[in-house]
Amino acid sequence: MDGVLVHENHALPGASELIQQWLANGTEFLVLTNNSIYTPRDLAARLRASGLDVPEERIWTSANATAEFLRQQKPDGTAFVIGEAGTITALHEAGFTMTDHDPDFVVVGETRTYSFEAITQAIRLIAAGARFISTNPDATGPSRDGIMPATGAINALITKATGREPYIVGKPNPMMFRSALNQIGAHSEVTGMIGDRMDTDIVAGMEAGLHTVLVMTGISSRSSIVQYPFRPNEILEGVHELVNGDVG
Hints:
Blueprint: E1 6-7, E2 10-11, H1 15-25, E3 31-33, H2 40-49, E4 59-61, H3 62-73, E5 78-82, H4 85-93, E6 97-98, E7 105-108, H5 116-127, E8 131-134, E9 140-141, E10 148-149, H6 151-162, E11 167-168, H7 175-184, E12 192-195, H8 198-207, E13 211-215, E14 234-236
Parallel strand pairs: 3-4, 5-6, 5-7, 7-8, 8-11, 12-13, 13-14
Antiparallel strand pairs: 1-2, 9-10
């Protein structure tokens, strides 16, 4: 989503036209994001404010992927959550009950209101046997005043205290892409992935067997590509190059 369709709450060139092209052609698609703060409904509203009309059922977050993974692991399970509405709502919809008493899982998602008490409780529950799950590994996130600690930083704090590493469902875990494929009934051999980051989007798309397209409107640049031992299938200046065309 960020760096591909929008940048700083403004639609990128060609983004609106590409979304409308897919909708008009009946092309199955999902907009993916590692952001687990917001629900798909919230994100659809934010995208509309940016000038993009994306139905909420076309948005798949790391929280959605995490909830689907946990539903498969333990149907009707319980969880203690550090996170916002996006994570809690996704888990509720997957049939989970939120509790701080002997939960099956401790789930760490993105939040802007980290609580020392909640982190302490998470550490104690994991030490007592709860399985440690996280929505994404991003250690920092952007803000107007500079970088700020994100989910990965809290994961590291809990790992240091417990000696337990979390299982991370979001990018770069290819499981996020596989869960997205399942949502739209698509096969990897006929599906493309458009992303702006080599270290999360492209590597995960590649490992999930997708046709990978890197755009130059976000994090990665042409000069940074040489740092990685793998390459995307295509490199484009932006999604505007896909309007009235197709990926691959």
